Amino acid sequence: MSTDRHIIPFGGLRPQERRVHPIIQYVLDATGKRRVRVCIIATAGADYHERYRNALPPERCWVTHLALFGRTVDDITEFLCDQDLIYVGGGNTLSMLSVWRAHGVDAALRAAWEAGVVLTGGSAGSLAWFECGTTDSYNLDRLEGLHDGLGFLPGSHCPHYDGESQRRPLYHQLIAAGLPAGIAIDDDAAVHYVGIGIVEAVSARTGASAYHVERGADGQVMETELETRSLV
What we know:
single chain
């Protein structure tokens, strides 16, 4: 496996008529493998992983799941470093990060990333890789800032940018108040990082994209759409 460090966060995935969502196909292709060893980590959803397993093409994937609420894996670092792709599901980011840190998954994920395992995920599985961002972890009815992400990728992040009405205005408000500049991603779009640099943004739906959001010298928030390649 290449030791390039790949992270591919996506904003969220809407239902599609295609059997395999184009974003899922994209992250599988990013491993460079015809058959891909995929580990699902669904901690944010209390280990419920079947929805993610069902989204993966069985003819192309060997799928495992790292359970932490009924843990059976002794050496998590060895287990994760033996994968080609780690797919982190959505749910409560705050709770997920707390459980990860208690079990040492944060350090294990960094080791896997540095070993060349591709990291991906949407929603909580997108936000986790950054320093900070927007979350509904504290209250499902009200978004707030989250400030203790893993920090593998610098800056802030907002998933579901076009998928939830509170996301864009809150992200702009937080950026204006001093949250680090960062990347917002619509549902059905993804951003591919190699190391900590963006190599491309991709989209599986007309109008879905990704954006760099920052606070200008005049205090105004500036949103710049990334050049986005269509997958469909």
